[in-house]
Amino acid sequence: MQTRHPRCKTNARRTELGSTKISVALCLGVPNDLDFTDSRRSILVVCDRRDAEDRVTCPVLCGDVSFESGDPGLQQREDVTMGAIAILGALIIGLPIVAVPVLLYVSMRGMAGAEKTFRPASPQEFPDDYQVAAQTGQWARSRGFRYLGSYAMNLPNLVFIAAWQLAESPNFFCMYGVRNKYAYDFVTYLAPDRTLTTGNTRDGLMLPRRPGRYGQAFENTDFDTMLRRHQESLAYMQNAGRIAPRPVTKNFEEAFTGALVDQLAYVRSIPLWPLRGLKWYYVDRSRFINKSIEEQHRARLIQLPGDLNWREDAMA
């Protein structure tokens, strides 16, 4: 016997499992409208329509299990459970594998030509970011850094950038803001074509750097500790790698955009770089986080120009 279910907005009906063949849609996380019930169990499905064979179907199919008439027993319950687990497992495993290369490719495409979008940022356009920059600037000035200005750039999201320089040295302190989230780093330009960047987020360690461009990041670290770790690594690089600071020959915009263009070109030169992004994201960020340049060097994660096996053209 069939009766219209009061919660159903279409022609789907309430029925006993033993009376027909029902296509049960496993719609994970979707509100359900109909309850098919026998004496031993209940199954919730979305009941927006019936197909040509008068089976109830779901418009958003995450999986499909058919129940033959007269046998809605234990094995069927196990099949439904295992099917749902298999679907969920495939989503958990498969989505990140697909998502990381795709997102990396899209981001790299979006950053192509980003240096052309570098421009001054106005307080009217970034009122909250300017307020944070003003607070950060108090610390920077107390440590001898002078304010250079605030800028905006599409990377590919619109990024607010505030920059300070330590006297006339090649040492810079930068703040980056995206949607009220902020990251910071210290950057020193070294000769010939060497840089050291010390940040406070592991995301800055994801993309590989061309040999001679070094990076380290320390999470949950205050500015004074970041600056001290930066200076310690500079001293180690000068002693172990015979790398010395160079006089400033470019303004901040030229140095910043030039370094960005160089890194993007290097990443795109690596064979199969979108697929290798899986390793960069899931492995390398964790391997490098909270490790100083000395620790990275001693663990053979990086090479310095003074090493016997140093290669200027080595790939990541």
Would you summarize the structure shown here?
The protein is an alpha+beta fold and 316 residues long. It is built from 6 helices and 16 strands.
Question: Helix and strand layout, with pairings?
Answer:
Blueprint: E1 3-4, E2 13-14, E3 22-25, E4 34-37, E5 42-45, E6 49-50, E7 56-57, E8 64-67, H1 74-111, E9 119-120, H2 127-142, E10 145-154, E11 158-166, E12 171-178, E13 181-191, E14 194-199, E15 213-217, H3 223-240, E16 244-245, H4 252-269, H5 273-288, H6 293-298
Parallel strand pairs: 14-15
Antiparallel strand pairs: 1-2, 3-8, 4-5, 6-7, 9-10, 10-11, 11-12, 12-13, 13-14, 13-16
Helix pairs in contact: 1-5
What does this structure look like?
The chain is of the alpha+beta class. It folds into 2 domains: 83 residues, no CATH class; 184 residues, no CATH class. The chain is 35% helix and 24% strand. The chain contains 6 helices and 16 strands. Strands 9, 10, 11, 12, 13, 14, 15 and 16 form an 8-stranded mixed beta sheet that branches. The longest helix has 38 residues. It is globular and about 50 Å long. The N terminus is likely disordered.
